[in-house]
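note to self: the first set is below, dont mix up w the second
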Amino acid sequence: MVMLLTVACSKDEGTENVDQSNLTIDLNLANETDWQMANEILQYVNEYRVSQGLPQIARDQQYASAYAVEHTQYMIDKNRISHDNFGVRSQALRNRGAQSVGENVGFGYNSAQDLVNAWINSPAHRDVMEGNYTHTGFGVMQNNLGRYYFTQIFYRK
């Protein structure tokens, strides 16, 4: 049995009471994402956005992806998907000029198309995908069993 899960975090939930000292990130983390899969996810997300009359969003291979990878590693370590500490990621990107931030996470999908289709079919995920965002970062990684975990951070600059 394959368990497929996704969870959405609407923009800027949990940004109150963020300890500013927790906002630093190693940009090299962004290199750890599976960029082939991430690029496919971005392609499908942008195809969907265009079909809805929305502008495409650009890939951020720096801060947003570093934070996304850090969160994906956290989910792998915890063996569950979550939006734990979303406020930290959101505040960190706001400190770098983001006006709003949203996030989708998922687990267990083997293709970008299946993941994005699941997000399209979930009202909360679809709302994030349709948000007024300009950029996106990715944390796409496999656990030691080869199962994918996904974090996609959206933001408007």
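second set (the one i keep forgetting abt)
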Amino acid sequence: MVLFFSATGNTEFVARRCADLLGDECVDLLPKIKAGDFSEIHSEKPFIICTPIYVCEIPRFLRRFLKKISLTGNRNAYFIFTSGGYSGIAEAQAGPLCHRMKLRYMGGSNIVMPQNYIATKLYEMPSEDQIRGTLKSAVEKIPHTVETIRTGGKLKHRHIFLIEFLAIIPVAPFWSKFVMTAKRFYAKDSCVGCGKCSSVCPLNNISISNGKPVWGKSCTHCMACIENCPKDSIEYGKISEGKLRYNFRKYRSIVENGGTTEKK
């Protein structure tokens, strides 16, 4: 069974493509995460957990959720990470997490997908050509990962160097607490109060008041609100102004038609 959390569609695409190739069931964890539903999920086939990478880690809220959920049946578990190019220490976190969940860790694979972190000045959002190239490469890699899972093999992850742990472990908590805040999010006058942002927030951090979204104190910078807004009405201070909004659904034609059609 394939389990996934996805904010802007990248991880969902990878998860559903894997499930299709394996003829397996695919479960979106977002409703369970929002509801705090830790009820049993049973599978006779190996569990495949698909997750994005936040601050070079498996998202903290997702780790907390997985530690509490009950997975029964098959005890083998694979992790598939989706990142903008670097999966950080996620592979090292997956093994202990599986142990905590009483699962046998069968390795992890990183699928590079288009960058979607719009709330930073550290790097620019990818161009249309870069998005196309990244998606085509991802489509080519997924079947190889799936074949290893199908045959019961172990996914081989890259070696994580000590300097990576020394850099990421102290920085990630600081970044999560002091940088990944919702203070700069706001809705422009073009907002129609549809509530999409609230419905996709995994931390239930967005409410609708007087027809406009209001952000609370909890935020994981998943970018679900800003990248899923149908009117492109959400901004993150001045950082996001004028930047391309990425959502996989806009580029579905690239993977469905070999990249020969325009984005939808």
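remember for set 2: The two ends are 30 Å apart (CA to CA).
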